[in-house]
Amino acid sequence: MSDVMPLVHAVNVHKSFYGVEVLKGIDIDVAAGEVICLLGPSGSGKTTFLRCINQLETIQGGRIWIDGELAGYEEKGGRLHRLNDKRIAAQRREIGMVFQRFNLFPHKTALANIMEAPVHVAGTGKAEAEKRGRELLERVGLGERCDAYPAQLSGGQQQRVAIARALAMDPKLMLFDEPTSALDPELVGEVLAVMRELAAAGMTMIVVTHEMGFAREVADRVVFMDGGVVVEQGPPEDVINNPQHERTQAFLSRIKEETEEHAAALKERVAAEEL
Predict the structure, then answer these.
(1) How do residues 182-194 score in pLDDT, each as one tens digit?
(2) pLDDT above 70 coverage of the chain, percent
(3) Angle between helices 185-200 and 155-167 (to 10 degrees)
(4) What is the dihedral of CA 108, 109, 110, 115, to 10 degrees?
(5) 235 within 8 A of 215, measured Cβ to Cβ
(6) pTM, whole model, 2 decimals?
């Protein structure tokens, strides 16, 4: 099945919360090695869709396959049966997820945060997990901060540790839920640089972001969502530079205004600090 399916194959995915339909039939395919950026206003369903892929939320309609395997269910006699928690956990190990907030253990060092899942979930030996953890910290530019605690790191550094932690399980797919939205503007670049390196190395990635420059440069395809549906999708040069749908046009215009305002505010702050 994995020979003919894309790595992620989502068909008619539905999800509701308390009677409010958040996803209204999402169809998205992601090929192995492809980078997809999900764009859209708050409440459009982007984060919910990521959480459904990673089984942090249970879908109520449709199906999602990851590398040819039906996520969360098995089919018997034409009916779907929910997998037990152990099998769902095994599926989730194949997927790395990076959140808006870093969610690091505050009482553990950067290295210990990265070692946690390999040792306690995957059963990796501590020596091997430590070696891998140090390599990953080096990869994200924090090789000298192995023994630092989260409170001793900047927001950008903490997010880079969170990326290294997700990579420690050798995922076949990485999900990023607005990974730079909680960062000060001057720290955004260091996190995006790590993500660019991952994309260049061939990691399959689905990224919820408002960073249009990153989407233009790195995404193979941009998907614009609004109101729980896919409104428009295609290469970034088409969707971002020449959007066809009025909802996409309005969203991108608003993002451009906000970006210009943030840039002006940052310029003023830097000028004030130099006085």
Answers:
(1) 888 889 999 999 9
(2) 97
(3) 20
(4) -60
(5) no
(6) 0.91
